[in-house]
Structure formats: structure tokens, C-alpha cells
């Protein structure tokens, strides 16, 4: 269930493993959930080891996407640069370096002068330093999704759009299929890759899933900014303001992501707490009016090229949050036939090839071999186990 990047990548990996009797049900059109709204950032620079290992597994795939899928996706490995204006920020960025060295991650601490050489026209007089992952970068979520979908369909996967799953079919405590307005579909295994919509659907099988929607926005300025076409994705550690080039179709635009701004003008990088009820998105994907002036002010403060930003496009989508900002991936204990891969809390695109490969291993082999992802099981929310330290960016 779900035709976002995770569901479609999973269909692709199932087909790769020789499973051709695969059906994807999507309530809208492919990518019409959160996937269409993302910034496309791909990085190894995380705090938790499992996130880094997922990035390593995913990046192997991103680098050779065209060979694996026979479709084109540009993974622009121009780097991912955190900058900070405080000594605390430098210390926080430095704290992960030991782990990166252990895992072979190519990240390095950089000073303000190095930052100025990497990003033309960036203001550095207020910066204390930064950290760059030179093998990181960014991609294009909808291009990747189209590539996965095309390859999956060639292998016989059926993708059915405009078909909402109203409920899961449960027999003897096991999930055996799905009910739609057009009838029932039976399946040996059912995967919920339904993003921010997962909780109410899982509830139809009596499974409580703590995933909820949290609206975030992106803005684009057409520029053009030809001198910035191959800069890293740049992110301010303190404010959460980030930008990347978006140079598809011959353009040289910049895309901006930002924290939410509360009614009192405070920046909010993630939800304060989980809601009492885990429901579906409300459908309100308007862009809060206070964001554009904030982005313009932040941009003008940081970059010479952003002094007179003209925002040419903007949109919102829902992060699919979980209480620990990590996804739920794996079989659902106590409910045979049901699997979940959802709740990526802002990282679902970059990790999609790894997630898909691993959930397919679990579905077909009963366990994963490429990487131990037992910490991502929904079990942690039932027992209160807290395997992660990271927070959403
Ligand atoms: C502003 C923003 C910036 C982001 N930036 C990044 C980034 O830089 N890097 C990164 O890795 N990630 C980023 N993300 C996160 C990333 O986009 C998501 O984690 C990822 O797209 C999730 O993919 P998904 O397939 O799990 O969910 P979705 O794309 O939401 O797909 C779920 C699909 O399930 C369908 N569905 C739901 N319920 C049903 C049902 N009952 N029946 C049938 N179909 C159903 C939906 O219509 C939807 O298409 C960002 C997200 C946002 C909002």
C-alpha cells in the first residue's frame, strides 16, 4: 500500500528478487504524498550509527541508480555542509567525528575561510566553523520514483493509482489483504508504505502505530544563480535554514527549507510532542505566510546572491513523524502478514533504496542480512525501548 518512494522502491526490489505477483495500491497518483515535496538531500552525517549505515547502503545504490534501474536519476554528490555560528555548534558537529572515522565516513571539520572557498559569496564573519560530507549531496525524489516505477512495471509489478485502501483484511489475527471501493485484494504479505496516513489504516487491523503528519514547507527562487549550481546543500546548524541548487531543465534555481515559525514568531524544528490521537493529514497544505519573509531575511543574511530573493514557487508537505524521529520498518509482531515501512521523519527519500532492500529481505527471508534493523521495529514503541538519540532536522 502506498505509491511513494518507499512503496515503489520496495516493489522494485521485490521484482528484483523474482517476485512478480506484486500489486501497489495508491490512493492518488504516484509520489503525490510526501515524496513530491521533499528537498532531496542525501547525507551520511547523522548522530545514530544505524542512520549512517542506512545511508551507506542507500548511497551505494544512488551512485549506480541508472545501472540498477535503466532509468536516469542525478545524484549530485556536491556535498552537504553544516555551518555554525557558535562554539557549542562546533563542539556538537565535532562530537560525531569519532563515529564517522570508525564507519569510514568522509566528513571533515572546516573553518570559516574554507567555507568561503566552498560556497561563493557566503557570509562568514559570524561563523565559527562547520562540517562537510563531501560524498553527500542531493537528488530528485520524483525522478527517482519514476525510475523505480518504470523498472518495476517492466518486471511485471502492477501499480494501481486512484485506489484507496479503506481497510486491511484480517482473518484469524493475520492480515490477508486489503479492501478498496472496487473490492478485495488478497495477498500473502501486506506492506504499509503509507507515510503520514499509516496510523488509521493500521488501526483497521487493530495495530496502533504512532505516526502523525507535521507540515513542512519548501520555497524556490528561480534566480538564476549560475555561480551556485554545484555548491553543497548548506544548512545553518542553529536556525535550520538550508538551501541547495536545483538545476533541472537547464535552470539554476535554489530551493530553501526552513523550520516552522510559531504564532509567537519562534522557530520550531520539530513537533513539541506527539498528538493524543494519531490521525491522517488534514489536507491543509497551504504555506504559512510568515515563512517567506523569514526565508528572505535569513537568505539575505547568509548569502550575497540572496539579497533580493524572489520566491517563484513554494509548497508544503507532511513529514511523517514518529516519537523518536525514526521510521518504523519491519514485520509487525503479533500480526502475521503485516509489514510497515513508514514514519521517516524527514529522511525517507535518502534512505529509500536501503529501506526497500531491507524490508524485502524481511518479507521474503524472515530476517535482514544486509543490515540489522531490529531497532526500527514497532516493538520499541510497545516496550518503551529508546535505541536512538537523534532529533529531527
Ligand atoms: C519539506 C520536506 C523536505 C524534505 N526533505 C528531505 C530530504 O532532504 N531528504 C530526505 O531523505 N527526505 C526528505 N523529506 C522526507 C521525504 O520526502 C519523506 O520521508 C519520503 O518522501 C516518505 O516517502 P514515503 O513513500 O514513506 O511516503 P509518501 O511519499 O507520503 O507515500 C505514501 C503514499 O501512500 C499513499 N497512501 C496513503 N494511504 C493510503 C491508502 N489508504 N490507500 C492507498 N494509498 C495510500 C499516499 O497517497 C502516498 O502517496 C522531506 C519532506 C518534506 C515534507
Tell me the total number of β-strands.
20
Structural class: alpha+beta
Distance between the termini: 27 Å
CATH fold type? FAD/NAD(P)-binding domain
What's the CATH first level?
Alpha Beta
Going by CATH, the architecture would be 3-Layer(bba) Sandwich
Task: Quickly count the domains.
Answer: 1
Unreliable stretches: none
Bound ligands: flavin-adenine dinucleotide
What do we call the CATH homologous superfamily? FAD/NAD(P)-binding domain
Number of helices: 11
Portion in beta strands: 15-25%
Helix content: 25-40%
User: Strand sequence of the main sheet, in spatial order?
Assistant: 4-5-3-13-14-15-12-18
Largest sheet: 8 strands, mixed
Q: Which geometry do the CA atoms define? A: globular
pLDDT average, as an integer? 96
Rg over alpha carbons: 21 Å
Could you characterize the architecture of this molecule?
It contains eleven helices and 20 strands. It is an alpha+beta fold. The chain has one domain: FAD/NAD(P)-binding domain (3-Layer(bba) Sandwich). An eight-stranded mixed β-sheet has the order 4-5-3-13-14-15-12-18, sandwiched between helices. A hairpin with a 2-residue loop joins strand 9 and strand 10. Helix 1 packs parallel to helix 7. The protein is globular and about 65 Å long. The chain binds flavin-adenine dinucleotide. The site of flavin-adenine dinucleotide has 41 residues, from helix 1, strand 12, strand 18 and helix 10.
Amino acid at each position: 500500500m502506498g505509491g511513494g518512494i518507499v512503496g515503489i522502491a520496495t516493489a522494485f526490489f521485490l521484482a528484483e528478487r523474482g517476485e512478480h505477483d506484486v500489486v501497489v495500491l495508491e490512493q492518488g497518483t504516484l509520489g503525490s504524498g510526501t515524496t513530491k515535496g521533499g528537498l532531496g538531500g542525501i547525507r551520511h552525517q547523522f548522530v545514530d550509527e544505524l542512520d549512517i549505515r542506512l545511508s551507506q547502503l542507500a548511497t551505494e545504490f544512488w551512485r549506480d541508480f541508472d545501472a540498477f534501474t535503466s532509468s536516469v536519476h542525478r545524484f549530485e554528490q556536491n556535498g552537504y555542509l553544516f555551518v555554525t555560528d557558535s562554539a557549542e555548534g562546533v563542539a556538537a558537529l565535532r562530537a560525531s567525528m569519532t563515529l564517522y572515522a570508525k564507519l569510514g565516513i568522509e566528513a571533515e571539520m572546516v573553518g570559516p575561510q574554507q567555507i568561503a572557498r566552498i560556497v561563493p559569496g557566503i557570509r562568514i564573519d559570524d561563523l565559527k566553523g562547520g562540517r562537510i560530507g563531501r560524498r553527500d549531496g542531493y537528488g530528485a525524489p520524483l525522478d527517482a520514483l519514476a525510475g523505480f516505477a518504470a523498472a518495476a512495471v517492466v518486471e511485471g509489478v502492477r501499480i494501481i493509482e486512484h485506489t484507496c485502501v479503506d481497510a486491511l483484511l484480517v482473518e484469524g489475527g493475520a492480515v490477508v489483504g486489503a479492501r478498496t471501493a472496487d473490492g478485495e485484494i488478497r495477498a500473502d504479505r501486506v506492506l504499509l508504505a503509507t507515510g503520514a496516513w499509516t496510523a488509521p489504516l493500521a488501526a483497521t487491523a487493530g495495530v496502533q502505530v504512532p505516526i502523525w503528519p507535521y507540515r513542512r514547507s519548501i520555497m524556490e527562487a528561480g534566480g538564476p544563480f549560475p555561480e551556485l549550481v554545484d555548491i553543497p546543500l548548506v544548512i545553518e546548524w542553529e536556525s535550520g535554514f538550508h538551501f541547495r541548487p536545483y538545476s533541472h531543465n537547464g535552470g539554476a534555481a535554489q530551493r530553501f527549507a526552513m523550520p516552522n515559525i510559531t504564532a509567537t514568531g519562534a522557530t520550531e524544528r520539530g513537533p513539541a510532542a506527539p498528538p493524543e490521537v494519531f490521525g491522517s493529514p488534514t489536507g491543509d497544505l497551504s504555506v504559512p505566510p510568515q515563512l517567506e519573509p523569514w526565508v528572505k531575511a535569513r537568505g539575505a543574511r547568509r548569502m550575497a546572491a540572496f539579497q533580493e530573493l524572489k520566491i517563484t514557487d513554494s509548497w508544503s508537505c507532511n513529514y511523517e513523524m514518529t516519537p523518536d524521529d525514526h521510521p518504523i520498518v519491519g514485520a509487525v509482531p503479533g500480526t502475521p502478514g503485516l509489514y510497515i515501512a513508514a514514519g521517516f521523519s524527514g529522511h525517507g527519500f535518502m534512505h529509500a533504496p536501503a529501506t526497500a532492500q531491507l524490508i524485502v529481505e524481511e518479507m521474503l527471508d524472515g530476517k535482514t542480512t544486509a543490515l540489522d534493523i531490529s531497532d526500527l521495529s514497532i516493538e520499541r514503541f510497545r516496550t518503551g525501548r529508546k535505541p536512538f538519540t537523534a532529533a529531527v532536522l
